[in-house]
């Protein structure tokens, strides 16, 4: 690559294959949620997504290690990652917006308050409260809700701690202290997967002891909508950080050239910030 030129990647099959894999996964997921069948299709889609991601990222790593990327490519990667994070912010903003809309507007209207209080005619005996343990109509609500000061608080401390350990690892990489980077990144990965395990325990408790399910009225729906998608992002983030750890062990990255690591750190810090919002507005308030 001559000085001042811009690297143009060769024609890639990964975007179309990634789209097909995502479509397969989402169709299978929809079938499971709506009809209770389609788990094989969903599993096939998940495996296809993981395969495309792995092979696509492999090609990008090879291009980077070959010295094909220059400062302009670095700016392009940074802009792309920034817009991706922005799209994720909007993604979760929609879910938080649904939660706030229900709590701030819909429930008071059903209780006869405000300009649209006529909605109270639907269920005259309805009383607005949150969490909504007794939904109107024939919908059964949850039996109880989680105390925020038990498993949710533990997971909050874990994620906040993981952001700190990741920052230490990042600073170590910028200073050329690879052992520091390796050790603290390993701690971060372990904390991430620990969060996932505890979230699984919480879901088991929700279904079997608290009656919090997807069918448990608006509280159950919003609970799993927010915590479920966040949990998926934690799994993705922990997997990405695992790949970063493997690359560190293989001698990849340099103090002045490590945007792959930096992008993973951006993503992980975003996931942590979203969890703080979840902890406050799903569990505490």
UniProtKB/TrEMBL annotation:
UniProt cross-references to InterPro entries, sorted A to Z: Cyt_c/ubiquinol_Oxase_su3, Cyt_c_oxase_su3_dom, Cyt_c_oxidase-like_su3, Cyt_c_oxidase_su3-like_sf, Cyt_c_oxidase_su3_a-hlx
Chief location: membrane
MF GO annotations: cytochrome-c oxidase activity
Listed Pfam families: COX3 (PF00510)
Superkingdom assignment: Bacteria
UniProt GO cellular component terms: plasma membrane
Transmembrane segments: 14-34, 40-61, 82-102, 181-201, 234-253, 265-284
Homology family: Belongs to the cytochrome c oxidase subunit 3 family.
The name this protein goes by in its record: cytochrome-c oxidase
Species per Swiss-Prot/TrEMBL record: Halomonas shengliensis
């Amino acid at each position: 690559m001559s000085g001042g030129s811009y690297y143009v990647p060769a024609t890639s099959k990964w975007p179309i294959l990634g789209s097909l894999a995502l479509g397969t996964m989402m169709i299978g997921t929809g079938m499971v949620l709506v009809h209770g069948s389609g788990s094989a299709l969903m599993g096939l889609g998940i495996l296809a997504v993981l395969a495309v991601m792995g092979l696509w990222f492999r090609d990008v790593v090879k291009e980077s290690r070959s010295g094909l990327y220059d400062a302009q490519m670095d700016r392009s990667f940074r802009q792309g990652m920034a817009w991706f994070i922005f799209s994720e912010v909007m993604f979760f903003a929609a879910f938080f917006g649904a939660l706030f809309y229900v709590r701030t507007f819909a429930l008071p209207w059903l209780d006869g308050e405000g300009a649209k209080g006529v909605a109270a005619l639907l269920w005259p005996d309805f009383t607005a409260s949150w969490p909504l343990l007794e939904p109107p109509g024939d919908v059964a609500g949850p039996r109880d809700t989680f105390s925020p000061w038990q498993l949710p608080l533990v997971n909050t401390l874990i994620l906040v701690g993981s952001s700190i350990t990741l920052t230490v690892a990042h600073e170590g990489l910028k200073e050329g202290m690879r052992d520091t980077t390796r050790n603290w990144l390993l701690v971060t990965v372990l904390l991430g997967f620990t969060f996932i395990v505890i979230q699984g325990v919480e879901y088991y408790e929700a279904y079997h002891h608290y009656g919090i399910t997807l069918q448990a009225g608006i509280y159950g729906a919003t609970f799993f909508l927010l915590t479920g998608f966040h949990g998926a992002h934690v799994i993705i983030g922990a997997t990405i950080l695992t790949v970063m750890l493997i690359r560190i062990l293989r001698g990849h990255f340099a103090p002045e050239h490590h945007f792959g690591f930096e992008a993973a750190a951006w993503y992980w810090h975003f996931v942590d910030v979203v969890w703080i919002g979840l902890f406050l507005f799903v569990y505490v308030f």
